[in-house]
User: Which sequence fits this backbone?
């Protein structure tokens, strides 16, 4: 059953190849626009490069919202099929998550490569940049997929996604920092996938060990790390991102099975 459903979804994807190609072209165009806005930012002080890191992550995250509509459409078809006992819910979930995730990974990889290349940052840092970019994107994709499983329709999904999205985007350690956040709202920073991605990317790229007594400290990468209180905690950061991703996927699975069922 899994092979049959997987094959059917692949066939449907191939039939809609034009929309798929448009998605990839748009990803490249978005990358070019951001690349032009931050052209050669790699030659500028690290404090200027931080805005580039945030914006790349932000644009990739927001762009995933458009995937909720197709997921809801797929869910509607699935509900009719399951109600007719053509296949169990978990078969659809496995096939859907696999195919949709592959599409998200490819489109965002294109976007990331174009942005990074035009920004002029040394490609020796691309591996570190992309691994945290990838984990953040996968977490946001799981979040929006969960919302799509809960919502009754596309408009409802947009409304339901907004509170969580706003928290994730604002409380990210860059806009609202650990220094400026209200004491009782510090949890929002530690909840945001963007915080962990920005934190680890910044530490990977900016750590240059310049001492505070050095005359060039204010233009150093270490100054940015100290200013925003970034810390190198790759295990914790990866654990939180993977944990959130798994949690959102589990909630997606539960909500797909329990909510928005077809009434005969």
Assistant:
């Amino acid at each position: 059953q899994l092979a049959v459903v997987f094959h059917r979804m692949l066939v449907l994807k191939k039939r809609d190849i034009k929309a798929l190609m448009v998605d990839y072209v748009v990803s490249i165009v978005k990358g070019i626009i951001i690349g032009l806005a931050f052209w050669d930012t790699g030659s500028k002080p690290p404090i200027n490069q931080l805005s580039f890191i945030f914006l790349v992550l932000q644009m990739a995250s927001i762009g995933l919202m458009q995937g909720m509509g197709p997921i809801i459409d797929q869910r509607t078809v699935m509900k009719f099929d399951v109600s007719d006992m053509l296949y169990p819910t978990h078969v659809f979930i496995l096939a859907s998550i696999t195919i949709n995730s592959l599409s998200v990974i490819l489109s965002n990889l294109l976007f990331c490569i174009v942005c990074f290349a035009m920004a002029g940052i040394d490609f020796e840092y691309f591996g570190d940049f992309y691994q945290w970019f990838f984990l953040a994107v996968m977490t946001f994709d799981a979040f929006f997929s969960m919302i799509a499983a809960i919502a009754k329709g596309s408009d409802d999904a947009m409304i339901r996604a907004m509170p969580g999205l706003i928290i994730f985007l604002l409380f990210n350690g860059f806009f609202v920092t650990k220094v400026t956040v209200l004491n009782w709202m510090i949890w929002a920073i530690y909840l945001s996938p963007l915080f962990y991605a920005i934190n680890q990317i910044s530490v990977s790229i900016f750590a240059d060990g310049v001492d505070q007594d050095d005359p060039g400290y204010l233009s150093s990468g270490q100054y940015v790390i100290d200013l925003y209180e970034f810390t190198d905690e790759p295990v914790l950061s990866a654990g939180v991102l993977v944990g959130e991703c798994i949690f959102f996927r589990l909630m997606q699975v539960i909500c797909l099975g329990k909510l928005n069922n077809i009434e005969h």
Remarks:
- The chain has eleven helices and no strands.
